[in-house]
């Protein structure tokens, strides 16, 4: 068994607004609130065990309808510093008019050589029915 040399807990309170593709392909600004907890454990051989848990709400208004979607996910991955992890998340919610909505998000996460997390968002979109 390889003994870890660095163990880091990252807790991020989520409160940001980013562009998404809304119902019918129209662009919408979406606000996310909640929390993300990430643990990185770096081993002496340079490998990293990365785990992520998120519990967040997404809200937006489009064409007079208020939408709310819950996005909850967790994952664990073994990787090397500098490698990019592609994370695809899905959430389910409803519009104030009863419309059901599925949210889809693609994120790219890198654990750099210092054990810090670098996150970029590629794209996000909603499917409404």
Q: Describe it for me?
A:
By secondary structure, the chain is mainly β. It has one domain (4-128). 0% of the residues lie in helices and 78% in strands. The chain is built from no helices and 7 strands. A hairpin with a 4-residue loop joins β4 (65-79) and β5 (84-95). The protein is elongated, with a radius of gyration of 17 Å.
TL;DR?
The protein has 129 residues and is mainly β. It has strands at 4-21, 27-43, 48-62, 65-79, 84-95, 100-111, 117-128.
The proportion of residues forming helix, as a percent range, comes to under 10%
Enumerate the strands of the largest sheet in spatial order, edge to edge or round the barrel: 1-2-3-4-5-6-7
Q: What Rg do the Cα atoms give?
A: 17 Å
C-alpha geometry: elongated
What is the string of helix and strand elements?
Answer: EEEEEEE
> Are there runs of 5+ residues with pLDDT below 50, and where?
none
- The count of domains is 1
| Main beta-sheet annotation | 7 strands, antiparallel
Q: How would you state the average pLDDT, rounded?
A: 83
Number of helices: 0
Number of strands: 7
By secondary-structure content and strand pairing, the structural class works out as mainly beta
**End-to-end C-alpha gap:** 50 Å
Strand content: over 45%
């Amino acid at each position: 068994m390889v003994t870890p040399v660095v163990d880091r807990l990252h807790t991020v309170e989520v409160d940001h607004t980013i562009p998404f593709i809304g119902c019918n392909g129209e662009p919408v600004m979406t606000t996310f609130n909640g929390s993300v907890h990430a643990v990185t454990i770096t081993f002496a051989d340079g490998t990293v065990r990365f785990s992520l848990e998120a519990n967040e709400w997404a809200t937006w208004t489009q064409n007079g309808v208020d939408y709310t979607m819950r996005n909850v996910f967790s994952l664990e991955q073994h990787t090397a510093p500098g490698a990019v992890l592609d994370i695809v998340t899905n959430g389910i919610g409803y519009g104030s008019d009863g419309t059901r909505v599925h949210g889809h998000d693609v994120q790219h996460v890198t654990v750099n050589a210092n054990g810090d997390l670098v996150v970029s968002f590629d794209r996000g979109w909603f499917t409404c029915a």
